[in-house]
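cache lookup: miss for this entity combination. No prior model stored, computing from scratch. Input as submitted by user K.M.:
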Amino acid sequence: MSYTERVQLTVNGQAQEAEVESRTHLADFLRHQLRLTGTHVGCEHGVCGACTVVVDGVPVRSCLMFAAQANGCTVTTVEGLASKDGVLHPLQQAFWNNHGLQCGFCTPGMMMTLVAYLQENPNADEDDIRDAISGNICRCTGYETIVNAALDAAQVMRERI
Amino acid sequence: MGVRYFGAEVRRVEDPKLITGRGQYLDDLPIAGVVHAAFVRSPHAHARIQRIDTAAAKSTPGVIAVYTAEDFGDVARRTLPHMVPVAIVKQPLNYQPLAHSEVCHVGVPVAVVVGKTRALAEDAASLVNVDYEVLPAIIDWRRALDANAPRAHSGTPDNLVGALHGRFGSVEDVFAKAPHVFAERFETHRGGCHSMECRGVAAMMDPFGNGLTVWTSTQAPHMIRRLIADHLGRDERTVRVIAPDVGGGFGPKCAFYPEEVVIPLAAIELGLPVKWVEDRHEHFLSTTQQRDQSWDLEVAADLNGRLLAVRGRCIHDNGGYVPYGLVAAVTSLSAFPGPYALEAVDIKLDVVFTNLIPNTPVRGAGRPTTCFVLERLADRVARELSIDPADVRRRSFVRKEQFPYPTGMKARDGSLVTYDSGDYHGCLEAVLELGGANFDERRTEALAQGRYIGRGIASYVEDTGLAPFEGASVRVEPTGRVVVQTGAASQGQGHATMFAQICADILGVRIEDITVEAADTALFPLGIGAIASRTAVTAGSSVHQASLAVRKKAIKVASELLEAAEGDLELEDGVVRVVGAPGLNVPLGQIAAKLNGMSGIPMFQGIEPGLASTAFYEARKTTFANGTHLVEVEVDIDTGRVKILRYIVGHDCGRLINPMLVDGQVRGGVVHGIGNALFERVQHDEQGQPMAVNYSDYLLPTAPEVPRIEIIHIESPSPLNPIGVKGAGEGGTIPAAAGVIAAVEDALRPFNVRITEHPVSPARIRELIRLGQAD
Ligand code: FES
Ligand code: FES
């Protein structure tokens, strides 16, 4: 038996309205209903961080949130990071420059965690950043180049303010 | 030809799509009309299937079909073909696509439900009723060969999968004469794969004709095609296998799995595209792991602590089925004698069945555990003789002037294993120098403050560039775009960038002008797989050879077009021009257009159509990478927590194509090894129920636990391939657990602790301290 709800939300600046099953989590809704497949699921139990998106300015594990709970919210996913004309966000640029990704599966979640974190903590140092991404698992990189990318991006973001 | 890319830290061509969320991993593929599968898996480690009732599941709304082995006839009853069928496998018992009568570990697929959505399929899967007769299970691999041990498969004479034996030299003589002999017992453990993307398979029949297309998150699309075709009794040409973007592999994504047959079978049966994506819980239950070994070893050393010989026995847990030959075990055996110039080795390795998930290679395959036992033996000798562990290595290593060095061991084809090149002392001295000579003082100072710091070193040799081949073709299009195609799949290593670098230098083009296409059996006819740190050596060399052939052809044709001698031509910026007369030139694209032919116009004399070439570099002999790791840790003796203070890698993989990518491989590998040393343990209870099936119970290293990793490269080019490279994918992992554990033991010196196992948890460290104090 499935129950559905109607949700209205803004995703990457675009208004969306949809009928969702009550049990559908936000990650599945974004991926399969909105076809925004840049958000990945790595565990579906809230530990790996691959599914992280920004909801109303806060990084959220979209596998632990029902789509219905996002009603009225503003959601940003990795697809919404670059500017409309395709200019990469400083974090994206820094991940590329610093070899911050290998298979790229954890990368959207890492970047969405960091984008929210660095906005709040523009002067974060290496230890802060390691703590900030302690809920994001990467099996490929050993984290060092991700930390380098974050430090790089933080500097660019500071200069922009 | 100017070298601009080879050896440079070139940013990856793979990244732009991945950082913008445009990657296409298996679950992202927009397959129109796809329906979704969920598996029913065995809840028991060993059981006989008595009856499967699918009626309730079938009548659930949204369910399209429910299949058990019965529904697929013979195809489901046959066991899957073997990836590496070798005679040493005494009992080659493999999976059936869906278990028909017996299940031999928790997680074996017994039925599949296909539904309109994954959620509906899962709902219905929980309604499939299976009656099992639970059978006794063998879980403790150390007891698997006991006469009265339960059999992992009912009706088999014993639990022996195969018995391996490697030896050279006069072991008895060396041991009889050696002034020092020490015995040690080791228990080594590896963990799982834990690629962040789980496995997944999708399949569909072509709308016209008889073709079957399978997308699978694999490391080895060509091999999977061969095995699917074999099992389904199809011509290979009617099966196309594509590996889309793959989110990490680390070995287990090379195995051939039941789902890779069941999903195609369902797609054929239904005439619909069918997809299954493994969830993390299933990953814990069904993706192969690398598991336990126990070792009883003796080491012989001379008066100065030089290692002379090693002998003993290992029992190696194979798990419940043999999908992958004995590769994990064979690589453990063939990792002897490591970097040491031993006079004799004699190792027996018994591979045994248990009712656990199969043991197949995980990053490093059998090498990290062998490295662990060898390095721990070297440290034991140092400790017993009160000499510096570095001196044991210095005195025992193969020396630079000894290359090529036949170790005494025999390769799989019976030839002598020969280390091609290297500088083992060079790597060791480099990490010691960077690590600083004053560690003993620092340790004493720290102790005075009640802090326990320790330092460990671990050295290794890795056989890379595994036979037989990985091919590549290089083609120039009339637009001037260069297309490189290869069978070599990628799971994040950056192969496309590396191939583009090699090709760009030879053809004088920018890497932006190159498109690399890989991992699709329709694009390149043959391939083996991205395993065993072999892609740079094999496919890299093929790209090199094919690019050279294209270059040669371009110059030849240009010499006709420009009416100039070949020796007067140069190829730069995608243009062949006459040296000294740059106005006289012809772009590669134009040459390609000419070579693509025009109706009625004859081709050039003696030149084949197409500005293209295909090469299959054949890896006849193995190249050996090497290195030494130096680790400093601090142990909190109250909590047992280990903090890694410093991690230095001395690494030699021959010539570096892209140092940034090699560093990435090394760092990721090291962190995998840190997980093996301190965190990752696959726990089971006595009935074979896995105790850790999520990331709260199974711990992977996260950023705060991981140090910066300082890397020093030494380049000893391999003489065996045209680009002088060796593999780099696994060297980071191989010595990491050995190095970390050595450092922990060193830190706990005051407590007389010896560590002969991994992983060690904080609780275990506290226990070892207690036991050490009690001694
Ligand atoms: S998928 Fe959401 S935390 Fe892992
Ligand atoms: S890049 Fe592969 S998991 Fe992070």
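stored under new cache key. Chain B has a mean pLDDT of 93.
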